[in-house]
Design goal:
This protein has helices spanning 15-26, 51-60, 92-102, and strands spanning 2-9, 35-39, 42-47, 69-74. By secondary structure, the protein is of the alpha+beta class. The protein has one domain (2-102): 2-Layer Sandwich (Alpha-Beta Plaits). Strands 2-3-1-4 form a four-stranded antiparallel beta sheet, with helices on both faces. The chain is globular and about 35 Å long. The two termini are 16 Å apart.
Amino acid sequence: MYRYMISYDLKNKSTKNDNAIKSCIRSIVDNDDDIWEGLSSTCIIKTDKKPKNIKKHLIDSKSIKNTDKLLIVKLHNSAGRGDGDWSQGFNFSDQSWLKNNFR
């Protein structure tokens, strides 16, 4: 499985639109352990899908509009493991997920 960071900036920032895209992103993963949603407009997922297919899924579901911004980036090093660091502002659950996936 690959890890992807999905970051978005919605032109219409209503709670309804934000909930729709988060729900759509959750539908990509197989289980709750395959997604991290510790930031408001960014999540990290584990999936076998390619970025092009993830983008198509989000656009086809109408969660992302032509005026919105979407960035999907694969996160891993040559060994297939991610590398990263973060601030202490995250709760214990978020820090555990990040540690298990990027250290």
